[in-house]
Amino acid sequence: AMNMHEELVSVMCRLPTEILCHIFIHCLPHTSYTLPNSKSPPMLLTRICRHWRDVATDMPSLWCRLSMNINRATGRNWRQAVFCYDSWLKRTRGRPLSLEIMCIKND
User: Fold this and answer.
1) DSSP string of 15-41?
2) pTM for this one?
3) F-box domain: which residues (predicted)?
4) pLDDT digit string (tens) for 34-58?
5) CB 62 within 8 A of CB 91
């Protein structure tokens, strides 16, 4: 079973860039905005293998819809949140950005 898994991963990592681009677009959530999350696309796609990371980070269209949670960015891990948002925005490479800013007031 382990050999079959390794073979499947190897085949998936060797898919041509053009096919991966189409697959990646269809992997995006169907919502209009994306919260940065390492366990969901597009960030998850960068964790599969080096080839997938290179393709995903070179596709500005994957990164042009962003939801920012201001409360999360100003919490204890604000530096990590700022780094994450900065990296995300750089990947848009100047393309138009659709941005949602959430600020939930805690009473």
Assistant:
1) S-HHHHHHHHHHHS-SSSS----TTST
2) 0.76
3) 12-67
4) 878 888 899 999 998 889 999 999 9
5) yes
